[in-house]
Design goal:
By secondary structure, the chain is mainly α. 76% of the residues lie in helices and 0% in strands.
């Protein structure tokens, strides 16, 4: 497993996805990818914390964090869709972060012409 050596904080589906993405890459390209990807990826735990803030402060901050501006505004105006949307996002926070991180990984790979 190449990825575990470079990014031990990854787990589960994200680790497998990044591992497949980097499978045929030379070591120097992997190191470049890892540096850029680590700078841009969103930590699932931080996403969960931001969703929790929606109960006690402003709902939707977690949506802005991953670039869903329209949904963030909707969450602010509807108190997280009456808290139901916030609860669903807290339950699915890992999948929510993985979806964002998968998009970022593909962008990074494309930018580096790998």
């Amino acid at each position: 497993m190449k990825v575990f050596e470079h990014m031990p904080e990854l787990e589960g589906d994200e680790m497998q996805y990044i591992n497949r993405l980097l499978n045929d890459m030379p070591e120097d390209k992997i190191e470049t990818f890892v540096r850029v990807y680590e700078a841009r990826r969103k930590d699932p735990i931080l996403l969960l914390i931001l969703a929790l803030i929606g109960f006690f402060g402003v709902a939707g901050i977690h949506r802005f964090f991953v670039g869903h501006i329209g949904m963030g505004i909707l969450y602010i105006l509807t108190a997280g869709l009456c808290f139901i949307g916030t609860i669903v996002d807290m339950i699915n926070y890992k999948n929510f972060a993985f979806e964002y991180n998968r998009k970022i990984a593909l962008e990074v790979k494309g930018e580096l012409n790998l």
